[in-house]
Design a protein that fits this description.
This protein has 144 residues and is α/β, with parallel strands linked by helices. 27% of the residues lie in helices and 27% in strands. It contains four helices and six strands; from the N terminus they run H-H-H-E-E-E-E-E-H-E. Strands 1-5-2-4-3-6 form a six-stranded mixed β-barrel. The longest helix has 20 residues.
Length: 144
C-alpha cells in the first residue's frame, strides 16, 4: 500500500526522536536479571559503585543547579543516576537529601522536561540516600 511507507517512515522518525530524548548511559552497571523481583535483585550496583557514590563531598568547583522533587525511576534502568530537567546533557554531579543530610555522587541525565517538572531517580540512588522508595523526596542538585 502506498500509505504504508509513509507510516513506516513516521514511526521510524518518532522512534529516533524518542531515542534522542533518552541519554546514552555513561554508567556501565549491568541491568538486573529478567527474573528480578526484590529491591536487592534490581539494584545491580557493586560495593565499589556504592562506595564511590557515598564519597561525595562539597567540591569547590561545583555549582548549585537547584532543587527538584524526585520519584523512583524505572528499577530496570541500572546505575546511580538522576533524570532531571536541570541539565541538558549527561554530566557528573551530586545530590543531597536535606531531610537526613545524606549526599551522593551521581550521574545527572537530562529528562527532556521543563524546569520544575520533577525528576526521576534510580533505585540504587534512592537507597544510598536512604530516601523512602515510595516517597517524593526533595533533592538539592549540584553539577561538578
Amino acid at each position: 500500500m502506498p500509505g504504508d511507507a509513509a507510516v513506516d517512515a513516521a514511526v521510524a522518525d518518532a522512534a529516533a526522536e524518542i531515542a534522542d530524548l533518552e541519554p546514552a548511559a555513561v554508567d556501565p552497571t549491568p541491568p538486573p536479571p529478567p527474573t528480578a523481583r526484590t529491591v536487592d535483585q534490581f539494584d545491580t550496583t557493586t560495593a565499589e559503585d556504592r562506595a564511590e557514590a557515598l564519597s561525595a563531598s562539597q567540591d569547590v568547583g561545583e555549582r548549585a543547579l537547584g532543587s527538584t522533587i524526585a520519584s523512583l525511576g524505572s528499577p530496570t534502568d541500572p546505575g546511580i543516576w538522576l533524570k532531571t530537567p536541570l541539565v541538558g546533557e549527561v554530566i557528573q554531579g551530586r545530590v543531597q537529601y536535606p531531610d537526613n543530610g545524606k549526599s551522593i555522587n551521581i550521574e545527572l541525565r537530562p529528562s527532556g522536561g521543563v524546569v520544575g517538572a520533577g525528576s526521576q531517580i534510580s533505585l540504587a540512588a534512592m537507597r544510598l540516600l536512604e530516601a523512602p522508595l515510595t516517597g517524593l523526596p526533595e533533592l538539592l542538585v549540584f553539577a561538578n
